[in-house]
Amino acid sequence: QVQLVESGGGLVQAGGSLRLSCAASGRTFRAYTMGWFRQAPGKEREFVSAISWSSGNTHYADSVKGRFTISRDNAKNTVYLQMNSLKPEDTAVYYCATSPSWSAAYQHYNYDYWGQGTQVTVSS
Questions:
Q1: Beta partners for 121?
Q2: Confidence of residue 105 (pLDDT cuts 50, 70, 90)
Q3: Following DSSP, what letter does each residue of 1-55 receive, concatenated?
Q4: Which of helix, strand or coil describes residue 91?
Q5: How far is CA 48 from CA 13, 33, 45, in A?
Q6: For strand 92-99 and strand 10-13, is the pairing parallel, antiparallel, or unpaired?
Q7: Shortest CA distance to 38 belongs to which of 56, 27, 50, 24?
Q8: What is the tens place of the pLDDT at every residue in 21-80?
Q9: Torsion angle, CA of 48/5/122/11, rounded to 10 degrees?
Q10: What is the C-alpha separation between 40 and 92, in angstroms, rounded?
Q11: What is the predicted pLDDT for the residue at 1?
């Protein structure tokens, strides 16, 4: 079992920045990839970004590329999502998740463990 705890969400005005954190614990041997997803009310959960623990390879959704940066601290078993130039459209609950593989890291069904989510609200 893997436990994931997100933090860092909050209220910010458009153009501002937030940094989300995801701390992983438990049986993390199969957690090859860490990903961030988000879900707004009435919408399906969508992929935001992913990173490989070993190589550091990253992948981003087109909607956040150039604004968001994913990173990891292997020693702390923690993944971060730096969000800059935030827009009201970024408002959602953000979830951290683990995947046993890197292929199709943007697909939510490849992820087996999920955090509780953290709310990000961007005002205009």
A1: 11
A2: confident
A3: -EEEEEE--EEEETT--EEEEEEEEES-TT--EEEEEEE-TTS--EEEEEEETTT
A4: coil
A5: 20, 13, 10
A6: unpaired
A7: 50
A8: 999 998 877 788 999 999 999 999 999 999 999 899 999 999 999 999 999 998 999 999
A9: -170
A10: 4
A11: 87
The residue among 80, 79, 77, 71 whose CA lies nearest residue 29 is 77
Q: What is the pLDDT of residue 103?
A: 85
Take residue 69 and report the two structure tokens written for it: 């940066």
Q: Which tokens belong to 41?
A: 């009310």
The residue-averaged pLDDT of 103-112 equals 88
Question: What SS3 state is found at 70?
Answer: strand
Q: What are phi and psi of 60, to 5 degrees?
A: -130, 145
Least confident of 18-27, 46-55, 86-95, 103-112: 103-112
